[in-house]
Amino acid sequence: MWQQTLAQPLTFSGIGLHLGRPVKVTISPAAANHGLRFVRADLPGRPEILAHYSKVVDTLRATTLGEGRVTLSTVEHLLAALRGAGVDNARIAVEGPEVPIMDGSAAPFAQLLAETGLRTLPSPRAYLRVQRPVELQQGDRWMRVVPGEPRITYSIDFSHPLIRRQRYTVPLWSEAFEKEIAPARTFGFLKEVQYLQTKGLALGGSLDNAVVLDDSEVLNPGGFRFPEECVRHKILDAMGDLALLGLTLWGRLEVSRGSHELHYQFLQHLMEQEAAWRIWVPSPPTPEQQPAWFQPTLWEGLPA
Ligand SMILES: [Zn+2]
Questions:
Q1: Is the same domain home to 172 and 261?
Q2: Is there a domain that residue 180 lies in?
Q3: Which run of H or of E encompasses 29?
Q4: 229-242 vs 76-85: helix axis angle to the nearest 10?
Q5: What is the pLDDT of residue 28?
Q6: Distance in angstroms (rounded) separating the CA atoms of residues 125 and 3
Q7: Which of 35, 110, 195, 253 has the most beta carbons within 10 angstroms of its beta carbon?
Q8: pLDDT tens digits, 5-56
Q9: Ion ligand 1: residue ranges with CB closer than 5 A
């Protein structure tokens, strides 16, 4: 109900997937209504990029944000971890053009956030509450949201014998994220990885940061972390992309064979359907629930 930020700054570093070079990241607490903002800390003037769908400049294989000529790629797993932990406001200073891939999941980020702890801010969280169904179909892919308690159901269908059809449902903005979704790693096919590397891409890609499949097997020694790790990772990607709404979605989301491009197109489509949702701030707390700093005026001026 209240907005949150980190209790204190946290720093980590890791290899960027595409360039294969180490990148340092510092996430700092921010005030209420600041939102999630990236800073390219390696560039002169430290340019800022708001984590918002209007800043998406590329969705091929990862979500890339940009402001003018400055870009930052692979933002989705870190954004999913931040929103999954309930962080509304933070400054994320990245010393390079991409967020480190870590182990290909959001678990390392989720763990760092859990160790750092969160702080409640004296301002209510606003939700985008869905009132009517909104759907976007692109060929055999579709994404829709209907009114209801926040949750996501995702389905995928790959011709690979170890993936095939997978479907998974999880409540959104709940503790389920850390256990069920954050550890699911990104996945790729050996042929694709080899092709990308001939093009100078995915240079940091290895079995340490992705599940890699050949025609019949998982090449990683430990295999999958969950039988349906692939679809769980798609939920992770979708939650990262959903963070770009800038508001917390309140509705039942369903995605079939989605991609970063579909997630992004859907956010645009949803925001255009203004009659289908409203900005909703849950009722003020009762006197017993009120923290010491509570001021009823925090609710005034917010759209009902
Ligand atoms: Zn991903």
A1: yes
A2: yes
A3: strand 22-29
A4: 80
A5: 98
A6: 5
A7: 253
A8: 999 999 999 999 888 899 999 999 999 999 999 999 999 999 999 999 999 9
A9: 186, 237
User: In the structure, what pLDDT confidence band is assigned to residue 241 with cuts at 50, 70 and 90?
Assistant: very high
In the chain, helix, strand, coil percent, each to 5? Answer: 25, 35, 40
pLDDT value at position 144? 98
CA distance to 99, 168, 189, 293, 301, per residue, from 25 (Å): 8, 31, 29, 32, 36
Q: What is the pLDDT at residue 204?
A: 82
How many other CB atoms sit within 10 Å of the CB of residue 194? 11
> From the CA of 294, how far away is ligand 1's center (Å)?
39
CA–CA–CA angle 239, 243, 248 (5° rounding): 100
Report the alpha-carbon distance of residue 216 to residue 218 in Å, rounded: 7
- Measured at the alpha carbon of residue 21, what is the angle toward residues 69 and 113, in degrees to the nearest 5? 85
Shared-domain flag, residues 79 and 195: no
CA of 72 to the centre of ligand 1 (A): 15
Q: Distance, CA 32 to ligand 1 centroid (Å)?
A: 28
Q: Alpha-carbon distance 84 to 78, whole Å? A: 10
Are 77 and 134 in a shared domain? no
Residues marked as catalytic: 260
List the domain range (segments joined by +) for residue 49: 2-124
Q: What is the mean pLDDT of residues 185-208?
A: 87
Are β-strands 151-157 and 252-256 bridged in parallel, bridged antiparallel, or unpaired?
Answer: parallel
Partner residues linked to 137 by β-bridges: 142
* CA 236 / ligand 1 centre spacing (Å): 7
Q: How far is the CA of 275 from the centre of ligand 1 (A)?
A: 31
CA of 134 to the centre of ligand 1 (A): 24
Tell me the chain's radius of gyration from C-alpha atoms.
19
Last residue of a domain, one of 59, 90, 124: 124
CATH number, position 268: 3.30.1700.10
179 DSSP assignment? I
